[in-house]
Amino acid sequence: MTAHQLPLETLLHIFSFLSSESLASFASVCRSWQIAVEKITFADIHLNLSTLKRLGDIVRSSGFERCELIKRIHFKVNLPEYSVAARGSYENSYDHRRNNEMFTLSVSSLLKTLSFWPSTDNNSTSLELYSRSPSDWRACEDWAERRTRHQTAIAFPEEELLDKRWEGSYLDLTERIPFTAGCIHSFKIPDHPGYRHFAPSAISEIVSLLPQVENVDMVLHDDEKNDNILRDRLRGELNFRGWPQSLRCLDLSYPGPTPSDDETLDPPPRSAPGKDILSLALHKLSHQLKSITLRSIMIGPELFWPANANQCIPMWPNLTTFVMDYQPATTSGDWLFETDPAWDEKVDEPWSPSETPIFPGRFRTLPNAKLDELYCAAAQAAQRMPRLRCMRLEAGIGRSWIKESFTPPVHTFEYNAMRGQAIWTSSSEYHLADHVRSSWDAVAKSHGHAEVYSESVWFYYYPEDASECSGANILDDRWRKKYGCFSWDDDS
């Protein structure tokens, strides 16, 4: 067998060891080698506005056959550069306008190019979108210069703001985009401290222009600290209006901590009880999904069961997985946790006089009755999820102030539909209220079980790997003994 006759799989394996710079020269050997080289070089491409036209020309020259080779597109929106003097100033309205215009032009040009690509099952492409300015300090490729700018920011903050320069700036579209891209099946907004923030309304509109998208994985930001009106407006504009019916999986990270790090204060209400716009929008969108993951999000019980749900019973016919990591307060201004008087007894070594917690005002770890309302709402929804396999709800409590040597405060809930098992893992004492237990009993019965197995547990020796705290392990006597797992009801 000659080199020209090597199977494609063998060529791909061999070429995978070569650098991208040296790989291109092998494409001219023969047609089979060209196919193998292009499968690798076109699989994962990085683009910006200036390189977009060249890609379009390359794809058109092959009669769009190369579209099927492109599996991942990483598109960077390069914002206008700014002067050294501007590094010490916050972005103003002129900067916002320039950035938004460039953002709109870049996204519109990208979608225009992709609109000509065929939309077939063979052409399943993922799109990742991010943005920064070449003048941003994290965009600087010279590490010595980046270190110098960081040191300048410490010594002379009036001269160098670093990422703070664009605090309160959210890239938005200045006009509607008239193009759609049916070739995109997955869309992602990555998480990176140096990437600019997008207005949720802009991202929502972009997703609506991807008529065949099945998976959306995005990190947005609900942590605006200087302008609560802007924060609430941005949140309200994440409405999922016009999102395609093809969507099946949503992974949304939307960090929305309470504006104050002092938990002695009541969180400011962001909506009337049961009226949170984002919770209601997510509730509606979730009906078409197979999987939903929500991270660091602030929600209300209406996410699962709105006030008018009994008038028109909702259904989740295809949902198999519901995972949520939520903030310890609701959007209507209610804490879900209280002070745990017993918490100090669980800490082996108190803070020394020379140590200060990062956020000493964060202390709420004891579940209250408002949290039970959330569990009952989740149970009502779970009864209408015939294909549900797993629901996991985890509270974001005490993560920022606790010592690394301490066992962190934890409160999680996990329901396994195959076993009819509902397990609460809580570092603070938690007893199941009768109405919570009966609600999940009804869920288990809807999934073919005589009754639910429910338990609220904690550990004398919390596992280093929290993922070990699964329902299967909790039912294992040897595992329980190893970590000192006990039921709160047994110790009551």
Q: For the terminal residues, how far apart are their CA atoms?
A: 76 Å
Tally of contiguous helical segments: 14
CA-atom Rg in angstroms: 26 Å
Strand element count: 15
Verbal overview:
It is a single chain. By secondary structure, this protein is an alpha/beta fold. It contains 14 helices and 15 strands. The strands form 2 sheets. It has a 13-stranded mixed beta sheet with strand order 1-2-3-4-5-6-7-8-11-12-13-14-15. A two-stranded antiparallel sheet has the order 9-10. Helix 1 (8-15) crosses helix 3 (31-41), helix 4 (49-61) runs parallel beside helix 5 (93-114) and helix 11 runs parallel beside helix 12 (434-446). The longest helix is centred in the N-terminal third of the chain and has 22 residues, at 93-114. The relative contact order is 0.06.
Descriptive terms for the model:
two-stranded antiparallel sheet; alpha/beta; 29% helix; 13-stranded mixed β-sheet; single chain; globular; 14 helices; F-box-like_dom_sf; DUF6546; 492 residues; 17% strand
Which helices and strands, and how do they pair?
Blueprint: H1 8-15, H2 20-23, H3 31-41, E1 44-47, H4 49-61, E2 72-78, H5 93-114, E3 125-132, H6 143-155, E4 184-189, H7 200-208, E5 215-219, H8 228-236, E6 249-253, H9 277-286, E7 291-297, E8 321-326, E9 337-339, H10 343-346, E10 364-367, H11 369-382, E11 390-395, E12 411-416, E13 421-426, H12 434-446, E14 453-459, H13 471-474, H14 477-483, E15 485-487
Parallel strand pairs: 1-2, 2-3, 3-4, 4-5, 5-6, 6-7, 7-8, 8-11, 13-14
Antiparallel strand pairs: 9-10, 11-12, 12-13, 14-15
Helix pairs in contact: 1-3, 4-5, 11-12
Pfam families: DUF6546, F-box-like
Domain F-box: 1-45
Protein name: F-box domain-containing protein
